[in-house]
Amino acid sequence: MDLKTTPSPLVRRLAGAGILVAGLGAAYLTERQAATEQYFSSLGGFGGPAFAVIGVGLILFKGYRQERLERGEDIARLEGVALLTPRWKGVLGAALVAGLAHFGWLSGWW
């Protein structure tokens, strides 16, 4: 695989914007559900903010695959988390923290 198979920056950013809007929408709907019905979707409570952070990452940064290929790295033998660059591990970590924080807030943990 070469760089020609990676999406263009515009496509990546548009996809990121769509994921961001969907994540924020899920978080909002989950908050409304918690406020009006006294229960909420745990998937929406965690996943909404997590996807919103990933969407922001797609808007701001190149994809992990594109970063590695531009540096000339051989990614043929890399799989799963080993493919992620430190930047994308940070984005994933921030997404997990955002999801857990929102879920905890809705659950009344703090």
Q: Care to describe what's here?
A:
- The protein has 110 residues and is mostly helical.
- It has one domain.
- The protein is built from four helices and no strands.
- It has helices at residues 9-37, 42-60, 64-70, 86-107.
- Helix 1 (9-37) runs antiparallel to helix 2 (42-60) and helix 2 runs antiparallel to helix 4 (86-107).
- The longest helix has 29 residues, at 9-37.
- The protein is elongated, with a radius of gyration of 16 Å.
- The termini are far apart.
- The model has no long low-confidence stretch (mean pLDDT 91).
Gyration radius over CA: 16 Å
Distance between the termini: 47 Å
Query: Which percent band covers the strand fraction?
Result: under 5%
Write down how many β-strands occur, each being a DSSP E stretch of 2 or more residues. Answer: 0
State the domain count: 1
User: Averaged pLDDT, please?
Assistant: 91
